[in-house]
Amino acid sequence: MTSRISTPLTSGQRLRMCNRKTGIGADGVLVLQQSELPGFTFKLLYYNADGQESSLCGNGSRCSLAFAEQIGLVDFDHAGSHVIKFEACDGSHLGGKMAGGQYFVDIRDVRISDVKRIDEMNYFLNTGSPHHVRFVEHLTQTDVPGIGKEIRWKTYGKEGSNVNFVQMSLQNPRQISVRTFERGVEDETLACGTGAVASAIAAYLRHQYDKKPIGCASSQDPMTTQVLMEGGTLEVAFKLQGNIFSDIRLRGPVRHVFEGNIVV
Ligand SMILES: N[C@@H](CCC[C@H](N)C(=O)O)C(=O)O
Predict the structure, then answer these.
(1) Which InterPro entries match (predicted)?
(2) Residue to substitute in 194, 197, 227, 248 for testing ligand 1 pocket (most ligand atoms within 8 angstroms of CB)
(3) Neighbouring residues of 192: CB distance < 8 A, sequence distance ≥ 6
(4) Tell me, what's the pLDDT at 8?
(5) What Å distances lie between residue 17 and 44, 134, 185, CA to CA?
(6) Which of 66, 90, 228, 252 is the most exposed place for a label (fewest CB within 10 A)?
(7) Measuring CA to CA, which residue among 57, 37, 38 is closest to residue 49?
(8) How much distance in Å is there from the Cα of 129 to the middle of ligand 1?
(9) Are strands 244-252 and 232-241 parallel, antiparallel or unpaired?
(10) Which atom from ligand 1 is nearest to the alpha carbon of 194?
(11) Residue 147: which H helix or E strand, with range?
């Protein structure tokens, strides 16, 4: 949910707005503020459905670009460039609109040395938000809310982590299917952008460990992974420059589903 507000909302108001039974219903609330930095179009704050401020939301960032366009803050079609800069909790990001109407956001570099390989099936990395990635053979039969909740609490405690369950495609090494349990929502969501990025990187590393050829992700040849999620398909592109995943770009569609005035 992306909002244009004149007074800050309280955590209780955000919680009530996100409630799916008695509120509007959302995985979180995004607030666009004026940025103090020259050249930045806005500053983005992200709150989970529990009302608390959290880390980066990849899909929310893409939605905020569409929202900024809708309220006239940016004119991607006539700006001369289809790319803007915005601030988020983890620093600056590029975002924009592609020919065909999809929106993308660039994610900050990830060092291979910062990716924890827990064991063959489990990885942990931060793509703006913390993500546990578990590889499974049968995604549709996986108890995502149950096992996700257990990993989120037993392994990561109060601080928590998002937990992604990933099934690799047997036919296409550049395609994965993902379901995500999100902390702060405390349930499975339909799609998670930073989770898609974390899963694509972990899948790439897992292929490397398994010594399976997956095509190259080099500084010249960005690798694109198609990430299938219940809410739709996202694409994650990145390059591998030495020890660093760089030029990480998350792209996909954005759909306007609801609008209204909130009386608080
Ligand atoms: N719930 C997450 C952050 C949200 C991630 C988001 N769904 C995305 O699209 O990236 C957290 O608190 O870490």
Answers:
(1) DAP_epimerase_DapF (IPR001653)
(2) 194
(3) 58, 59, 162, 164, 178, 180, 182, 229
(4) 77
(5) 18, 31, 13
(6) 90
(7) 57
(8) 6
(9) antiparallel
(10) 10
(11) helix 144-154
Query: Which of the residue ranges 65-74, 78-87, 190-199, 242-251 would you say has the lowest mean pLDDT?
Result: 78-87
**pLDDT confidence bin for 6, thresholds 50/70/90:** low
- Nearest-atom index, ligand 1, CA of 197: 10
DSSP 84-113: EEEEETTEEEEEEE-TTS-EEEEE--EEGG
SS3 17: helix
Distance 23 CA to ligand 1 centre (A): 20
Give 53's DSSP letter: B
What is the pLDDT averaged over residues 252-259?
94
Whether 100 has a pLDDT exceeding 60, the answer reads: yes
Strand segments (E) across the chain: 2-3, 28-33, 42-48, 83-88, 91-97, 103-107, 110-111, 116-119, 122-126, 130-135, 162-168, 175-182, 187-189, 223-229, 232-241, 244-252
Does the annotation count 18 as an active-site position?
no
